[in-house]
Design brief:
The protein is 73% helix and 7% strand. It is mainly alpha-helical and 171 residues long. The chain is rod-shaped.
Amino acid sequence: MQTDKVSYLKTKLEDYHRKFYKGSKIWSFVYHLCLFGTTILTLLIAFLLNSEFFHGIFGMSKNDSIALIALTAAILSALIAKGGLNAKWRSFRVNSSKIEMLILRLNEDDQNYSKVQEEFEKIISDHDMAIVKSSMKLMKRITRKKISNLSLPALLLYQNHSLCFTEPFSI
């Protein structure tokens, strides 16, 4: 029976390691795309403003095209600042390594089962909190601002280490 538990835990650890590894790659790509995309678009705007050869894109005027590029840069910048991309990327990356260490420890000795299981549960809980925490910061920023007629579907609250949803509200 103990070997079934150990086998199950190894399988779960490997599944989560794949999830965290893949997540770290995806969030890293999104974060760095937004980060460098903002920089490149801003430099492009400066170049296009002084260019006599640029007459616009998609049939738009030069000014409208530059405004569209500036809007895209602003959206990417907002995603970096408010989206918690950096926190998500780092959480996935760190937890991928932690899971890998647990797999190694469990492979060394099956007697580590209880300790590995406890650490695994803590990693999952810490990861969830890192992701929710970045979202909660965004929610707090939004609710502090006095924006009329902004309707949010639900306020995500953290109480007693569990997530719950309240009724929809308006600010």
